[in-house]
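Technical note accompanying the year-one report. For the benefit of new consortium partners, we illustrate the data format agreed upon in the data management plan: each record pairs a sequence with a structure-token string. No post-processing was applied to the example shown here.
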Amino acid sequence: MLSLAAGVLPDHSPQVTARAAATAGYDATGVWIDRDTWTDAVTREMQAILSGEGLPALDVEVVWLMPGAPDDHHRRVVDIGRTLGAANVLVVSSDPDDAATAAKLRLLCEHAAGDIRIALEFALFTEVKTIAQASAILRAVDHPAAAILIDPLHLARSGGTPADVAALPRAWLPYAQFCDAGLLAFDTEDRAAIIEEAVDHRLHVGEGVLPLRDLYTALSPGLPLSIELRSKALRDGHPDPVDRARAVLTATRRFLDSNG
């Protein structure tokens, strides 16, 4: 299953993204939930689009954990994802207390009630920076709904390897992201540079230097992939959402076909 990540079309609405995913030929779509603009009417419209297109939602995003008390909006994202039939909720954390992150994740897992997975993504610009740190948090959560989301870019920039992914319990990986990137050209202590690369400088799958072949092998066969290609060049070169979605899918399929 190949899904169009919401981040590929950040300049378009979730409705446009879902329609573009269907038209371009994806098997699923990601859904971005903006807390300020998402309403019950949007939920109903998205239900109608997904049902009409026969397109499942692979994930909804983003739950961004912060220091302090749990946020009611985060439970709302889980509820919206469940209503849309999404398989996963994407979570990141800016809480520097790993125990607090684990406690909030567990609450979300309990709220999920077995209907949807709660997937923690690690990245250097968050407070959960590495695959080892994310793994320790999941062990502390100790809930079957808890998961880790692997992004090849964040894995590489944080010093992780495909072997680290292969060592994870298979049950922790309901899906993964996929993208490529060039050689590291900045200080990984520079948070602004990390974010800039993540949102503006990713490359088509197979056009960079990330060890995607080894990572693909490390993942379970047939694992759903969310193609997370945030790129200013792609946005500028393909302003039409369907054209952009199709360009990403074509490159991804080319890589996957060439790697069996």
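Partners are asked to follow this layout when depositing records. The beta strands are 2-4, 28-32, 57-65, 88-93, 117-121, 146-149, 176-178, 225-227.
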